[in-house]
Amino acid sequence: MTGTPRTLAEELRTRTDSGLVGLLRARPDLLNPVPGDVTQLATRAGTRASVVRAVERLDRFVLQTAEALAVAPDPCPYDTLGALMAGDAGDPAVAAELPRAVAELRAQALVWGPDDRLRLVRTARELLSPSATHPSPTGLGPTVAEAMAGMSPGRLQEIIAAAGLPTTHDPVTAAAALTGLFSDRSRMAALLDTAPAESVAVLDKLLWGPPYGGVTDRPAPHLQWLLDRGLLIAAGARNVVLPREAALHLRGGRAHHTAEPVPPALAPATERDPQLVDNAAASQAFTALATVEELLKEWDLGGPAVLRAGGMSVRDLKRTAAALDTTEQLAAFWLELAYAAGLIASDGEADERFGATPAAEEWLQLPDHERWAVLAAGWLAATRTPGVVGTADAKGRALAALGPHLDRSPAPEVRRRALSLLATLPPGTSVPALAVRSRLRWERPLRSGAAAGQAPAAGRTPGAPAAVDGATGPAGSAGSAPDPVDDLRSRLAQWALTEAELLGVTGRGALATHGRALIDATSHTTADPTPADTHAAAARAAAVLSPLLPEPVDHVLLQADLTAVAPGPLHRPLADALGVLADIESKGGATVYRFTPASVRRALDAGRSASEVQEFLTTHSRTPVPQPLAYLIDDVARKHGRLRVGAATAYVRCDDDALLSEILADRRAAPLRLRRIAPTVLAAQTAPDQLLDGLRAMGYAPAAESAAGDVLIARADTHRTPPRTAPAPVPDGPPSPDPTLLTAAVRAIRAGDLAATAERKPVHAPAPVSGALPRTTSAETLATMQAAVLTHSALWIGYVNADGAASQRVIAPVRVEGGFVTAYDHTSDEVRTYPLHRITGVAELADDSV
């Protein structure tokens, strides 16, 4: 195509295949479904939903460039745009970055046309142009022509006469004359030199927006001076507006208060020894594994009940936080982390409860670094956001941990981007979280909720009119500008940095070596990483982390105060066995276990004998078994099992009838409702488990027995949910297309465009209207097809499929028989067979069309 394109579709046709691929990659929503031709692609690219999504993903300077084009003449020469961005004084940084911004807008089909006629697509202009109800971040108001629309011709002539301009014959030329005056730097300066100081102060008040001001019924003389010369124009009964051309002159030609061509620096930076950072991160990674493992152990017999609306109750969250020795907010993070990794879920029963999944058993058997990889992969891709737990939803209800409505679709992208920014720093270097949040707000200002480039007057909400004559207009009132730090994207970034520290991805605020390996595979790709990519990256990171994690030990140090010290992480079988025999007293670099009568009895209930307990301790202790511990084990074992409890409802059996008499005489046994039914047997009206607990509370050590009289080994029955998959992340818009899909889509668009725009020859009728399906009789269609087979020529056909969808195609017929034509379809780039009765018509292509 030659000449200047007249529409966006014409410009898209001039793009190379790589240019169309770049457009579809940047705006994947255009691919669903694949456009039939370039015209459909251009139409879809101009729809409001698609333009809003594209504009939301622009960085601050590119967005400022689009906002400047929205207030510039249409079309806008590049030099005019440069003046709006840099002002009359110029700005080398703006001049250097402006070509990139324009190229980015062109690549995303938001701007088209040559440099001397840049055009913002109509929908984007409507979104970004200022209006009374939708202020622009530029703070500019309507043009003179827009503000004067509807003004009486007599009043127009009075204004241009007061401004020193010759009278005109119609409103259009009057508005054009005033526009020319305000746009002329020298004439405008001369006019303002005659203005009263109070009038200039009013203009300064409205200069950077909002451009609307409130006035009284009788404006003061200095306001009337401005109104008489069109420097303020009435915008209602008691409101005035500063016209755009006048504001630009007062601003020195700048559309924005401050152009931001370069992103904020990641500063101040703090440098540390990378090895110290890695060690700190590895220590925290090990703590994360221990915390999740403790959570699973806490829920081994079943977790809390699921609320009717989903999630955990506040009381259960507090109980879990106490068990993990942490805060409720951190407990919510550990719960959501385990949930994202597929380790906990609800069991789906009628009395629904949370519990560990079968995958948790497999996870517990993995080496430490592989267990960390599972957690890291789940965290990196999760859209569930524990940071919002406890806040209110749209209906004012508190959001519960593990409940619904916790998904925030931008979370994975923000998480990866925050870590990627840390990866750009030298190893061991950290920056404040505020610096990372500021960079993210620059990269996505609209998604962050902050108005790009706007500098509202102090103490005034953007969009509210200023009081220029002792009154305010109805559009707003005084207030404070919203704090851009408190937007969702900034909070997601803050949570991401905090969670990365908890998980051991970072150490002391700096990205660890294994953290760099985790993010490296997902930060240098244009497409969203797949779950396979994320798990592969986590596995590589885990391999780097593995040497930094402490090696498990196979021994403890027994002490005379009935404690055992584990000098490091224990091998899992040893830790499990010791966890039954003793209670954990303290954690840290070395775990301290305490032996008590209850803990020893727990081991005996689990089937161990006193000799087996003694042998276990002797085998796994580097110190001799202390005498007090040996006495404790023997004493508990001697009493264990003398009483037998079974089901009557329940009964107590003992060969020592004196001991049974002692129990009956004890007033603490009254709630058990015991009665002697034989010299060595007591019957109870309580369940066996309650009877066991009651006797143990009285200081006895009963054992449960079966119906055959054998001692029951009381092993805790672990509660596991049915197999559950980890929650699927909620996508943030359509997924990024892969190269294969992009290549196929561009080929289909090109072929469809060829079918829609190729020059055709008439068969026996006038040439069809461009874009309409051809119409020929069945005989003409058959004859043309047969001739094309002999001449090996291409044809343009109209085709209606079985669903009634009509399309245009370019085919090269190969064979015609049995009511079908076999042809190479240029549209789909494959050989296909078409029923002749579904072909609406056919036309030959011009000789140079294919």
From TrEMBL:
| GO molecular-function terms, A-Z | helicase activity
Residues annotated as domain WYL: 780-842
Does Hydrolase show up as a keyword for this record?
yes
> What PROSITE patterns does the database record attribute to this sequence?
WYL (PS52050)
Tell me the segments the record calls region Disordered: 447-486
Signal peptide positions (record): none
Residue ranges annotated as coiled coil are none
Q: What is this protein called?
A: Helicase C-terminal domain-containing protein
